[in-house]
Amino acid sequence: MSMYQAPVEEITFVLETMGGMAEWTSLPGFDEAGEDLVAAVLEEAGKLASEIIAPTNKIGDETPPQLIEGNVKTPDAFKPMHQAFVEGGWSTLSADPEFDGQGLPTTLSAAVGEMQMSANMAYSLLSLLTTGAIEAISAHGSEDIRQKYLPKMVTTEWSGAMNLTEPGAGSDVGALRAKADKQADGSYLIAGQKIFITWGDHDLSENIIHLVLARLPDGPAGTKGISMFIVPKYHVNDDGSLGERNDVKAVSLEHKLGIHASPTCVMSFGDEGKCVGYLVGEENKGMANMFTMMNAARLGVGLQSVAISERAYQQAVGYATERVQSAAIGAKTREPVTIIHHPDVRRMLMTMRATTEASRAILYRNLWAQDRAHKAPDEAARYQARGEADLLTPISKAFTSDISIEVTSMGIQVHGGMGFSEETGAAQHYRDCRILPIYEGTNGIQALDLVGRKLGADGGAHWNALIKEMQDFTGSMTGALASEKAILQAGVDAVASAAAQLVDNGFDAIVDTAAAATPYLRLFGTVLGGYLLAKQAAEAESRLATNTGDPAFLRAKIATARYLSNNWFHPPHHCWGPLKQGLTA
What we know:
alpha+beta, Butyryl-CoA Dehydrogenase, subunit A, domain 2, two-stranded antiparallel sheet
């Protein structure tokens, strides 16, 4: 099993070309995010991921957490790893300075997060969910709640967990039955059970802050009657110290296909009638409030998808450069060679690399749009950025997680029969990532969101703006990618014409639109990924012309973009045929 090496050069290049890195210092609050600081952060984060976190990945898979007398115990190797993460202040990078955060771009903290996720995806879920909980509390909590809970959540001394799903309420959240009864002191008694709660209990943090969706006795039916509550594992005293344990506990752990090191809990609230919660935001507004956390988590799932794809690719390359089998095709000697010399193995490795890099480009562009939506100096710029971020989010989540399944499966194929055994580690990557298309709204739901909401938002202004940008670029393509110009233009035209038809369908053809939603998202992601890699290739070509950067790395960027467009990217592949069938059904 090869060890993970943080791809600092690749991530830096993507931050420069897709993540707006040159513009960071011009935005309010980001003035310290200069090139030297960013380089230092990425270098140190890479060391943490490669040297401290990555060695725990297989340990956690083979010796997962255990539930002992109502408390979850994590593997011993996790405690020093988590301590190093907390003491390094890695969770504070983009957090609000009001709570001792560093206030740096979310795009930068995501780059750090990618390395952590590649190193140990199951462990990374702990900070991912805590970050989402912080965002929800920051956006909707009262000042008292924010001051009481956020400081130690920002440092990850305390962690966060999201409690939505119930035995009878999965994607249909409106069917949940957990109850909340208001008390005379303004608090609420919470009662009910939640399932599939990631890091719902563990021994790495002093306290766990649960965000729980529950229903008031007189609340409206469906999602309109849901409220959000903070339910701490331990009560917090006025001076910030921990009090007695709340009436909330894990009653069992799920036995999962993958991410074994992440304790997925069945949580019980109020078994003794003493589970105290505190309202976040207004009553009956919980679903809207939870979407703040869920949207952050969707980008987090996209980041995990890129991260696990990167890990699987590195694993496959490492194996292919060591495994000796068969003579090279066309060679004059029958001397066996390493399998990386075999054309089909190289095809698989190139596909893994190209699709991983396309996924990364989409995600980092999305993250940069999100940063601009919060920090751009004028409302017009913020409006444009919000629209772009909203448009790209379902693609960032669904496209990248679908790709991760394909990349990790191909990684097993590169290993041959050894990939099907656990010794190599390739199988773990496939098992771990299989949850990603399900997390935070299944990919089918993401596709429906794209065609049902995002395409029509603001009269279609945002997808039309992106189409125009892509058309302008393809119209001026020269140099190394000039021969791929027609392919890329055909893809952009396909995205545009399909979008127009989907928007025009209206309610009478809503079933046809729903049938076309998933292949359309795949088409959009494929074309967008190809376009962004072409932009990276153009930048690489420019740097080569001026002797700026590592020539081998830059030539590889050009080759990867060309491979994608010629071997995988053409619109009929995966996308256009099923889409046309859906549109004409």
